[in-house]
Write a structure and sequence with these properties.
Elements: H1 12-17, H2 20-43, H3 48-70, H4 80-103, H5 106-112, H6 118-126, H7 133-149, H8 158-182, H9 188-215, H10 231-254, H11 257-264, H12 267-279, H13 285-303
Helix pairs in contact: 2-4, 2-10, 2-11, 2-12, 3-4, 3-9, 3-10, 4-8, 4-9, 5-12, 5-13, 6-8, 7-13, 9-10, 10-11, 11-13
């Protein structure tokens, strides 16, 4: 099954011919939203790097079985360098994001992370999609949202500044992963192999970072030891994240990057709703306004 949508045709008409773009992009939003919520909760009890390494390790093991079962090794080629690069960037983004979720309200952190859409949109522009007035407006609105989301605690609150900084680092990393994984394969079996390579690299990179952290006095496990009771949740987070990467790759290759990116960027709505429903989070008015502006800016940026 070939994934690419009549390249070099990257126009919106391409999406009209392939409604699967919308389906897979929206599935990505759902999967990333629940994975982010679960990862954020786990990081409040377990060090972020440990959550990344264990969850991604479980995903890598499952993908290894899938690759063997589907004969994915036959798809090995130069495209896997994109998957390798995504595997290096991914743990940095995940660690930053989970740490930000542990430090700040999910309803603020998750919407700000949608700024990651700027990277795949930029790739789309480079490949021939032309910017418009709405995209320029989207940039201005999104930046305003970032500032306002800091709320009245922006000054004199190191934790709040750290949360915003970590979220922006995560957004840049996620956007880079979006762009890389979309180019890592051109078939379904090749996608399984690309995701497997990405996850193995995630584990290696995250594991090395965890080792360095422990050597410098950091903590790898909570006080009670390895949280075996959290293993199913760790597995769910890892598998949901890898599934989201897969559905995004399919969506991006079925249609224009900007269309796939904007639909996939709606995942913070899922995370915010989960945080409100399960954690009863309440935001300051200015923070809610800023988070909302970040989402509006993202939509304008991607659809302009």
């Amino acid at each position: 099954m070939e994934l690419r949508c009549g390249a070099p045709d990257r126009s919106p008409n391409c999406t009209a011919r392939h409604p699967a773009t919308a389906f897979f992009a929206l599935a990505t939003s759902l999967l990333w939203g629940v994975a982010d919520f679960g990862g954020g909760l786990l990081t409040r009890r377990t060090p972020a790097l440990t959550v990344v390494v264990v969850s991604q390790g479980i995903a890598a093991a499952v993908l290894g079985v899938v690759v063997v079962a589907t004969g994915g090794w036959s798809e090995a080629g130069p495209r896997l360098w994109f998957a390798l690069a995504a595997g290096v960037v991914g743990p940095v983004a995940l660690f930053s994001f989970y740490k930000a979720l542990a430090l700040g309200p999910m309803g603020v952190v998750s919407p700000l992370a949608t700024l990651s859409v700027a990277v795949p949109v930029g790739v789309g522009l480079f490949l021939g999609e032309r910017p418009g007035l709405m995209q320029a407006a989207g940039i201005a609105v999104a930046v305003t949202g970032v500032v306002l989301a800091g709320g009245p605690q922006w000054r004199g609150a190191p934790v709040q500044r750290q949360t915003i900084l970590l979220t922006l680092i995560a957004a840049l990393g996620f956007g880079t992963v979006f762009a890389l994984i979309a180019e890592a394969s051109s078939s379904v079996t090749g996608l399984f192999l690309a995701l497997f390579v990405q996850r193995v690299t995630n584990v290696a990179t995250g594991g090395a970072a965890l080792y360095v952290s422990v050597r410098r006095g950091g903590v790898a496990l909570p006080a009670g030891g390895f949280p075996w009771g959290s293993l199913p949740a760790l597995a769910f987070v890892g598998l949901a994240d890898v599934a989201a990467n897969g559905t995004y790759s399919i969506a991006a290759q079925h249609g224009p990057v900007t269309v796939a990116a904007v639909l996939a960027s709606l995942y913070p709505v899922v995370t915010a709703l989960a945080a409100r429903g399960f954690l009863s989070e309440r935001l300051r008015g200015i923070q809610a306004a800023g988070a909302g502006l970040a989402l509006v800016g993202t939509l304008l940026l991607a659809t302009g």
